[in-house]
Amino acid sequence: MPPDPRPTVLVLGGTGEGRVLAQLLAQEPALRVVSSLAGRTERPGVLPGTVRVGGFGGVAGLADYLRAEQVAAVVDATHPFAETMSDHAAQACSQTGVPLVVVQRPPWVAGPGDRWTSVATVAEAAVSLSGIGTRALLTIGRQGVGAFAEVRDVWFLVRSIDPPTTLPPDAELLLDRGPFTLDDERGLLQRNDIDVVVTKNSGGAATGAKLVAARELGIPVVVVQRPALPPGVPIVATAAEAVDWLRRRLLDPRIRCNQRTVTELRP
């Protein structure tokens, strides 16, 4: 079978934005789309187009993949806390000359009535709990739960899509996936006598209702703030904006480079 002549777009996904982007790009017949998933979620759901699962083998492995697949553009639609993958994407695209854009939803911002304690890391969040509360809703994703394994004076309701490998000594596991409504979150906090919420500042509407519920109930929230993105990389807020960016870069006849030209420009 002859190679596909269409420009290839690599979407680094695993988020709602990545899923929407794959669906939007499936409606762009002039583009070939490959969605890459890290493989950390057991049931990621079905995506249109080509899907690959697993890592690339660091910056060098990703750069090799971009060259081998003649990728014309990369969209980083990973989680706002996927710091390593975003850094690798920026380095690999810089080395190969492949255009890169980041899709990152706006962060949550504290408003009147919010009682937030902002910290830089999950480890700092675990330390900061002392004196704030004794019954915590922990919603930070399964990979960070181990940082709370030594916390002895707090009961945790750990909510995660997939089971963590380590739980705090006094904890109950709740496997669930958003979106969550305000009524859902208010009821969850009240039924479990939650007096502190611990979350990452992921942004977005799917899991933001817990912050509104905490505000209404006067419950403090420990918020792990996002790591900084690699400098110099263009950022858009939505999947639709990423599609517009790709159209301008790859399909606008005034500025596009065809696949052969892009390949020749790479080192």
Description:
With 267 residues, the chain is α/β, with parallel strands linked by helices. The protein has helices at 16-25, 58-68, 83-96, 122-128, 182-191, 209-217, 239-251, 259-265, and strands at residues 8-12, 32-37, 50-53, 71-76, 100-103, 116-119, 135-139, 155-160, 171-175, 196-200, 221-224, 235-236. A six-stranded parallel beta sheet has the order 3-2-1-4-5-12, sandwiched between helices. Strands 6-11-10-7-8-9 form a six-stranded parallel beta sheet. Strand 10, helix 6 and strand 11 form a beta-alpha-beta unit. Helix 1 (16-25) packs across helix 7 (239-251), helix 2 crosses helix 3 (83-96) and helix 5 crosses helix 6. It is elongated, with a radius of gyration of 21 Å. The relative contact order is 0.18. Residues 255-267 have low confidence and may be disordered.
